[in-house]
Amino acid sequence: MSQYWSPLLAELSPYVPGEQRSGKRIVKLNTNENPYPPSKQVMQAISDVDGTQLRRYPEPASQNLRDALAKYHDLDSSQVFVGNGSDEVLALAFMAFFTNDQPLVFPAISYSFYPVYCKLYKIPFVAFPMSDDFSIDWLEMPNEVGGIVFPNPNAPTGLSCSLTEIESLLANNPNKVVLVDEAYIDFGAQSATVLIDRYPNLLVTQTFSKGRSLAGMRIGAAFGHEDLIAGLDRVKNSFNSYPLDVVAEAAAIASLNDETYHREHVNKIIASRDWLTKQLEARDFNVLPSAANFIFAAPRHIGAKQLHEHLNSCDILVRYWDKPMLQDWLRISIGSAEELQLLINSIDQTSGLKGDAR
Amino acid sequence: MSQYWSPLLAELSPYVPGEQRSGKRIVKLNTNENPYPPSKQVMQAISDVDGTQLRRYPEPASQNLRDALAKYHDLDSSQVFVGNGSDEVLALAFMAFFTNDQPLVFPAISYSFYPVYCKLYKIPFVAFPMSDDFSIDWLEMPNEVGGIVFPNPNAPTGLSCSLTEIESLLANNPNKVVLVDEAYIDFGAQSATVLIDRYPNLLVTQTFSKGRSLAGMRIGAAFGHEDLIAGLDRVKNSFNSYPLDVVAEAAAIASLNDETYHREHVNKIIASRDWLTKQLEARDFNVLPSAANFIFAAPRHIGAKQLHEHLNSCDILVRYWDKPMLQDWLRISIGSAEELQLLINSIDQTSGLKGDAR
């Protein structure tokens, strides 16, 4: 606290990201990073950026990337927005569409950055209760809402919503923006981008950080009706004209162009997720069915907090929240086969269970 | 305009950056870009980033870059903040320190993004009148202020303030943050960073876009008392945890490490500025003494608007504002020697003057 801080600043509750501890032996399963590097075409695109591109400002709209994304998703370029990671895109969307008097609503268990944005922009919000099985209970949603946001698949549960569910939400709230945060969409859930032409109130955000192995590069996107995209551009151009650097744009376009690599590695992660789920179920964990690149699992033979501490002491990082409903659970990112085996070995140290799972 | 836009969104007046027209023959002197590419060490650092760094999130604070900047400026790391270009850093600073009831003040002629940020964050502001010679007339500043911001050197005039002037401003406003926007500091003015240890109300912003040839990479920084830096971190962590990508951080550190290249190329730009000033003065232009990588010049033999149009038709881009006080002037970025010669040739087409300047 300082006399120079604005009243707003003093009231903020900043987001706390997962720990970025580094070191050769660290098994990092705490921030849902991709275990595989980006494709060689991406690395080549980065090396190919030349000094003239760097000394010049980027084209402010990153139009080449918007065009590539439009083609990839079978949309018009006017339906595409890009930014400095999907966190930035979400923040700009909150400012553009949710700074009104009625509360923004989101499920009580969802991305913990949502209430942080709300405090930043003084947006009233209601985090409505989940079902006991962690699914989103839309009947719990207040009647008068200023907007709706939720992750699909959800985090940290990994559970997904069907397109039918999303479509009824859009149809029932035609005057409010419904923001579907698809950070983890590559790993099995159905993207709502196919609904964009029919629902002018739908905004979908995605990221290159998870399925495309570019968390270090900070690239996010939004898809929606051109009026929503124009709104995002107005906020962007009132905040930072050039949020995406030329290297990031080149890397993103190269990633979209190497679909074979993308699909192959996403499928590997899905196969590892299935393997890990079976291993943990065989060790009597409760594991939610995940459509993401992480699983949400509750050990029964040991407390989750205790297991988190044990794993931490073995240099295996997973995410734990000491909060209502979450305190019995761990969120575990899908790492490489080797990393997941180390995780299982470490879990086996905490019980007599061993070797009875394939 | 759309029914989904928030009331705030509808009222914004977004910033309009200089045109990023591209093409082989374009002479681009409109966005104050560096005519020289970044050093080979920077290019190497970019190529050296590996797939593991890209698949992982950046360290959220970009601590390695903060440490390198602290060393470079002889400050403590706790006095350094970094972000996605100095536009982002300025936006976060406005939110952190200027969202209060008293007006933020800045000179009427200064960076045209300042009033845009104010509208975004609903900050009252007063743009106080300049002296007739375009210098900042601090006597025109209102008595009750919520904060002060100005560029040094100023844009688009290129005129600089002395450290004595800045110090008296800091001493006379001990309870308000004074933000010195040093985007163009490399080209001759004295940096206020040397005052940071003595004035807890001083915040200085800088960029890698101009002197360091990295406009395409989006890297900005702020320097100030650790309480101000902590405030910026609170806003950053409520907006976007990871604003700087790993490639940008590596490029920035490499740039700081190649001081010889930096100084050599800054000196070349200063020499070109002196050459261009003489050429234009010989052609009867009024040229303000510039401490930046651009000059602000008023032709006398032709209207500035008309000359702007002529240059544009020759694929030579310079910046013109059809606004009070500015309408007789052009802002011309210091390009390469070849580009500046093309500019002079094109200007000579508009008059009988030729060859009488060295």
Report on the architecture of this protein.
The structure is a homodimer of 358-residue chains. A seven-stranded mixed sheet of chain A has the order 2-8-7-6-5-3-4, sandwiched between helices. A three-stranded antiparallel sheet of chain A has the order 9-10-12. Chain A has two domains: 7-37 and 260-348, Aspartate Aminotransferase, domain 1 (Alpha-Beta Complex); 40-258, Aspartate Aminotransferase, domain 2, CATH 3.40.640.10. In chain A, helix 2 (40-48) runs antiparallel to helix 9 (246-257) and helix 5 packs across helix 8 (226-236). The relative contact order of chain A is 0.16. The first copy, chain A, has twelve helices and twelve strands. Chain A is an alpha/beta fold and 358 residues long. In chain A, 36% of the residues lie in helices and 13% in strands. Chain A has helices spanning 7-11, 40-48, 51-55, 63-73, 85-97, 114-120, 163-172, 226-236, 246-257, 259-282, 304-313, 337-348; strands spanning 27-28, 80-83, 104-107, 125-128, 147-151, 178-181, 202-207, 220-224, 286-287, 294-298, 316-317, 330-333. Chains A and B meet through helix 1, helix 2, helix 3, helix 5 and helix 6 of A and helix 1, helix 2, helix 3, helix 5 and helix 6 of B.
